[in-house]
Every structure is written in C-alpha cells, then in structure tokens.
Amino acid sequence: MFAAHHAPWLYTVMRMVFGVMFVTYGLRKLGLLDQPVVPLLSLMGAAAVIETVAGTLIAIGFITRPAALVASGEMAVAYFYSHQARALLPVQNDGVPAVLFCFAFLYIAARGPGLFSVETLNARGVSQKAAGSQG
After folding, report:
1. Where are the domains of the chain?
2. Which helix (H) or strand (E) holds 51?
C-alpha cells in the first residue's frame, strides 16, 4: 500500500538523484571537483559534456526522455569501451556505476519525467491557461 501510493514521488526522487549524481561525474571530468580537467575535444571531454548537460536535464525533468536516452547510450559505450576489456564482470572491471546508470537512464527514457519536473509543471501551466481562456 505504501509503495503503490508513493511510487510516483519515489520515481521522481530517483530521477533527480540519478541526474544529480551523473552531473557530478561530468563536473569531475571538467576539473570542478577533485580531478584534473580532461581535454574537451576528446572522448572524455565529450563524456563530460554529456554527463553535465544530460544529468542536469534529467535532474530538473526537462527534455527528459531524449536526455536519458543519450545518457544511457553514453554509459553503454563507456562500459564496453573502458571497462569490458579489463575483466568479464562489472564488479571486476569497475563498471558497476556505468551499468547501473545505463539501465536507470533507459528506464527514465521509457517512463518520462514523472510528477515534479519542468515538463510536468509546464504542461500544467499550459492546460490551466487553456482552461482559463475557454471560460
């Protein structure tokens, strides 16, 4: 009962947390946390931009589905490009975060922004304006 009643809000919190965590990976690559800056015109630089931009969009719930799809694809590429060659299992090749992000973002791409998002708030505002103009 509790889970079913709160599932939409818990999903929204999940989307926000995964988005913010993804942003931190991008900021780290951009040198804004504890790591040296990666060259922007490199694969790691492209990853930094995707992680920062897509993570922000996912966290706020704006253009959520495309951003999550791009983020999921980036994580799939990152896993096979950077982790898979090291060992067979994600726990052995330090690929667990990439796998978890990949599938979480795939789910977000399928489900959409959820309750509290820029998209949802914008849709409510548009429908309220439309209802007000009809009356």
Report:
1. 2-134
2. helix 43-60
